[in-house]
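chain below, 316 aa
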Amino acid sequence: MEYRSWNIDRLEELVGLWNREIGHDFPMGNDLFKQNSFVDCNVFTEGSLMAVNEDNQVVGFVVAKRWQDEINVGISKETGWIQVLLVDRNYRNQGIGKKLLDHAERKLKESGVNHIWLGKDTWHYFPGIPSQFGEVAEWFEKHGYIQGTKEHDLDCHFEDNEMVAPSLDGVEHGLLKIEEKDEFLSFMHRCFPGRWEYEAVQYFQKGGHGREFVVLKKDNRIIGFCRINDSKSPVIAQNVYWSPLYQQELGGIGPLGIDSNERNHGYGLFIVKAAVLYLHKRHIRSMLIDWTGLVKFYNKLGFEVCKSYDSYFKKV
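prediction:
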């Protein structure tokens, strides 16, 4: 077995291995894998590795990440991520997975990382280990990883009948206009610094013009937001990753947030209703909300759990 550096020339082979092993539940495409595991500037090339057999075939790989972007949104450089670790089922129980994990952990630690998450990375695939892969969770536990929270994806299919626009006294919703970009980013920096702010900045850098953000206004001032995604969005967003599993186009909802000074007025549910409406107007009927623990909140709109994940981390 030979271990080689992370190389985009192996893209199709890596995607093929992914789909053979977990594509039934998480179908992967070349564009998505390239976006998340090569183009993302936070991919830690030194900590990522491929296992290649005697026939020069990729039979395993690990993708490591650490914060390397120049944008300052408050994400710690001491945090690292294992985005994915995958080994061909015909080559398991031979120490390949441990070799890949040890390499990623060692390189991350040498770079100054002291806290490693499984998933949850920038341009992530998973917010943890998918719950149906219990043996994978046990394997990581044996290697020192500690279980944290449980996260969920929820979906819902809405019928073709016309939807009534939600209304609430004192506030109004609308799609973000490009001329409101600076105000919106200031709102995100003030109210939601970190990952959500970073994703908003990245959205505009990738050519977004505003149609993916429903904003909530009070006295003509932005006090909340909800992101929506579809096949025309400038990036492949996390809540539409697994769209091949759906017969119709899949729309994504989230994240959403309300200014902490404006909460407890029903604004959160209101803006999600608005988000559903905007996607419905685009003739999208299947919708998904990813990476949340607020199951009962979204149940109110008909969303039900479709995938679950167990969060894991390790201090090194």
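The chain has a mean pLDDT of 97. The longest strand covers residues 146-157.
thats it, cya
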